[in-house]
Amino acid sequence: MLGGNDMSPLQITLIILIVLVVVTAMITYFVRNNYYSQINELDQEKNDVLKKAPYEELEEVSELNITGQSYEVRKNLEKKWQDIESIKYPKLENHLFDAEQATDRYRLPESKKSQDAAKAAIQEINADIQDLKEALVGLIEREQANLEKIDQIKKRYHEVRKSLLAYSFSFGPASESFEQKLSKMENDFTNFSEFTVSGDHEEANKIVENLRKNIQETEEQMDAIPPLLEKVDEDYGKQLLDLREGYEELIDHGYLFPEDTILDDIETLKEDQQTIYTYIRDLKLEKASEAIDTLADNIDDLYEKMEKEIATKPLVHNLAEDTKRGIYYLQDENRRLNHAINRLSQSYVLIHNEPSILARLESQVKECRADFDKFNEHLVEQSVPYSIVYDALEATFNQLENLNDEHNKVSKYLENYRQEELDIKDDMLDMEQSMYEMKRYLENERLPGLPKDYLELFFSTSNRIESLSEELSRSKIQLIEIRKIHKMCQEDVAQLEEMTKEVVRQVELLERTSQRLYRYKDSHKGILETIRYSESLFTEDYDFDTALRLVREKLENVDPGAYDKVVENYEKENVQEI
């Protein structure tokens, strides 16, 4: 190894310990010095705060000739300063001393705690001194500030007094209340002077603030009252008079009103008007405004009641004429439909219970006629308010509209009997024509015969169409039964058309497949036998389906895919519709 001398583990450990001790000492030295610096900074902050102490203000306040509340305020402020000097300041000194002592003994956490307490105490003392100084200055300047404020208030007071004298009529019942308020303000001015002379500037300041609020309130009330009185006197007072005159005129012209309490309501509104005057007299302007809004709404309601009867009068006469025409029309409809039912019931079994429906409708029309006659009599005699008659006639007219809808429905039922009969007859002729065309189409194919299931369906369909024809030929037609037979005929004819197409298709494919299979008669055994057997099934048994299946399977055995080509070629060349 280099050097030639090896250090033992003990020597290495000793060196590490020495290094750690030196490093720790250095760190502790620097941290301790930093703590001393922080404590010095706090001490400097303490001195800076104490320099702000309001010694001059305290001395000036102590020389003031004050009494009453001002004197009590001075005592409280002096006590606050004594608390700072005798309690808070010593505590601050103790925190700084404890921090320094803890740092000397290397009790750094304790030092930090004391420093934090000192910092909080400095902030508290600083805030207290600032508040104390402002309060002392306020107390010193209170007299002058009060005099300046009272001077402004007196100017506003004199303006209010002049307005009240010049325009007392515009304030109505509130004039007396304003006089009382101004008189009280005069007493407050006197009290202010007495407290100021005696040196109780705090109590004088309370009077100043109270005067300021009162004069502000009085000015706002004097601005608000004339518009309120104008509404109550000019607007709503005239409207109440107009309502009474209008009501009496309408009564003279024969108008009536439902549950007529309009005169009582007008008297009640006049009482509400007096209540509003009372609120204004007592300067309860918020309540007065709310009462005015309610009065306006109630006046509008009365106008609406009267206007409704005026507007309803021409409408109710028009509605009466419309209702009368509606009744006459439905009575004619009843007679027309009764005649139609009597006529149709001789040829058809009615299936919608039309006679009972029409009897009910006829009874309801009679009820509407009775109601109409009753209210029309009231209308002629002017014994019921127009609005009530209108509502009753409107309900009757709406019922007549509903009855008319039901009459139309019955009329449609009756019209449909003959139309449905004609439609079914036309469709039956079309089905008979289809049967004939299918028969001729198969005859043209010159087939040896037809499969049994086809023949069964053909003849059963023919019989069913014949049954339908018989039902349609009866003297009194039962449409419900005819509908059932007609639907079955439609289904049978549709099925027969599909079977006809399939028969022709099988015959064509049988011939083409046999021809294609015949090509392989020399190269494959059993071809001719299969073809002959298939022909016998076709010509003797009329089993087209089995005959086609035999040649198809044989062709697929000798030439896979050939049958599909036969089908494809057939479908390209023989697209037919029956």
UniProtKB/TrEMBL annotation:
Cytoplasmic side: 32-578
Residues on Extracellular side: 1-12
Coiled coil: 115-142, 285-312, 358-420
A GO CC annotation given for this chain: septin ring
InterPro entries for this protein: EzrA
Membrane topology: Single-pass membrane protein
Keywords: Cell cycle, Cell division, Cell membrane, Coiled coil, Membrane, Septation, Transmembrane, Transmembrane helix
BP-aspect Gene Ontology terms: division septum assembly; septin ring assembly
Keyword Cell division: yes
Cell membrane found in the keyword field: yes
Pfam families: EzrA
Compartment list: Cell membrane
Transmembrane portions of the chain: 12-31
Family statement: Belongs to the EzrA family.
Role: Negative regulator of FtsZ ring formation; modulates the frequency and position of FtsZ ring formation. Inhibits FtsZ ring formation at polar sites. Interacts either with FtsZ or with one of its binding partners to promote depolymerization.
Protein name in the entry: Septation ring formation regulator EzrA
Source species of the chain: Atopostipes suicloacalis DSM 15692
